[in-house]
Write a structure and sequence with these properties.
124 residues, mainly alpha, 6 helices, disordered C terminus
């Protein structure tokens, strides 16, 4: 009989650090929340904004980065200004950033150190 070698245990992968949300995701959520609050359809808002139904859908899902002109058109179609959309997104970003910082600290990491290390390394 051939003796079997023990298989070394593979270390568990380190948990991924939570990442900051993208602005396009937050803006999309704000647009969708407002549209649904007004009980309007994608088609209705897209027609009012003079953008395609498909493009508005992509914006709401955070799949496209919209120009300020397109965002303003979508905001106005919802009876809001560009500042309203961006302000709501900023509030949500701050809320999530606070949660992200707390989660990162709970994992024993210091937020922002990896990117700082990379910047220092690149500068050297």
């Amino acid at each position: 009989m051939i003796p079997l070698r023990p298989v070394p245990a593979t270390p568990a992968p380190a948990p991924e650090a939570p990442r900051e949300p993208l602005l396009r995701d937050l803006v999309g959520e704000v647009l969708r929340q407002e549209r649904l609050a007004q009980e309007r359809t994608l088609k209705d808002v897209a027609d009012s904004a003079r953008i395609s139904f498909a493009y508005l859908s992509e914006l709401e899902r955070g799949r496209k980065e919209a120009s300020s002109e397109v965002l303003a058109a979508a905001a106005h179609a919802l009876g809001l200004g560009l500042a309203d959309i961006l302000g709501r997104a900023a509030v949500e970003l701050a809320r999530r950033r606070t949660a992200l910082t707390a989660a990162t600290r709970a994992q024993g990491r210091v937020p922002g150190t990896a990117s700082l290390r990379n910047q220092v390394r690149l500068a050297a």
